Amino acid sequence: MHVLLTGATGTIGSAVAAELLAHGHTVLALARSDASADAVRALGAEPLRGSLADLDVLRAGATATDGVVSLAFDHATPDADALAASVAQEAAAVAAFGDTLVGTGKPLVVVSGTPAVPGRAATEADPLPTDGPVAGRGRTVTAALALADRGVRVSSVRMPRTVHQRGTGGFAGLLTDAARRSGVAGHPGDGTQRWPAVHAADAASLVRLALESAPAGTSWHAVADEGDAVRDIAAVIGRRLGLPVRAVPAESFGPFGPVFAADQPASSAHTRAVLGWEPRHPGLLADLELLEP
Which CDD domains match (predicted)? Predict the structure, then answer.
């Protein structure tokens, strides 16, 4: 399959590119700069020059390929207005892909986060949230899944709060960044809230499986660790960086504060049983031990 991939130079995207190429697919990867194009070529993919805002470029790429994996999302600024703009940009890009693929039967893989369900681990059958700082991403995915009735083999891979690789990435990575800036490995509240996690290489294998075989209109959970306590995550970060560990106000984490403070374990039992996906790489706490001091 010749696959259009956005976000190919990110933690997840680079792993997805490697996974697709290793399994005989070819990759056309969106690249918004010369440096990104060089990085894409280094991965073994072909660059498509443009940004997520270049909707005509996205439509042309979707037309020229056999399927689309949409991963790109601008996490650069943890500011509420910037976050809203990133959500809107992603929504427009996914809508452009969807409109282009209507009636083709081609696969479209979109991503969101796993939902939080009070009192239990979220499952693939649970709906995505409709309010909160990143709820717009859920609305984007829900709209995309409706294209299953219009001849698009669309599926959703729900990523946990932390997709990690060598101790970096995801919400745990944001905790690490905050610790380096503040001199404290902080956790919101008492830290008993749980975050699901997955290694980037395992997430990539699920994205490939969804692209190759997921039925239209389905959702899957890329969850290896059902729920690591945030205080345990902070404890490893503190030990690796030589910093004290203590509770800090959720507001310290800006617009992500309410999400950081929430208990949000998630299950992938259905995904494993149906798609045969099985994580094989280190869990989050073990991977955090690779953090550079």
Answer: SDR_a7
Report d(CA 205, CA 15) in Å as an integer.
Answer: 9
Look at residue 137 and tell me if it is in a domain: yes
Question: Which residues pair with residue 162 across a beta bridge?
Answer: 197
Residues of the chain where predicted confidence (pLDDT) is lower than 50: none
CA dihedral (11, 15, 16, 18) positive or negative? positive
Let me know whether 108 and 218 are in one domain: yes
Query: What is residue 130's predicted lDDT score, i.e. its pLDDT?
Result: 77
User: Which residues, other chains included, contact 249 with Cβ-Cβ below 8 Å and sequence gap of 6+?
Assistant: 188, 257
Q: Are residues 57 and 186 in the same domain?
A: no
Report the alpha-carbon distance of residue 24 to residue 274 in Å, rounded. 23
What's the total number of domains in the chain? 2
Residues 100 and 213 in one domain: yes
Would residue 205 count as lying in a domain? yes
pLDDT value at residue 258: 86
- Which two tokens mark 241? 């960086």
Is 132 in the same domain as 87? yes
Q: Find the DSSP H helices in the chain.
A: 11-22, 34-43, 55-64, 80-101, 135-145, 170-182, 200-213, 230-241, 257-261, 269-275, 284-288
Whether 273 is in a domain gets the answer: no
Note the pLDDT of residue 78. Answer: 55
Domain range spanning residue 102? 2-161+198-224
Q: Which amino acid is at 273?
A: A
Dihedral, 22, 53, 82, 195 alpha carbons, nearest 10: -20
How far is it between the farthest Cα atoms of the chain? Answer: 56
| pTM of the entire predicted model | 0.94
The pLDDT value given to residue 76: 52
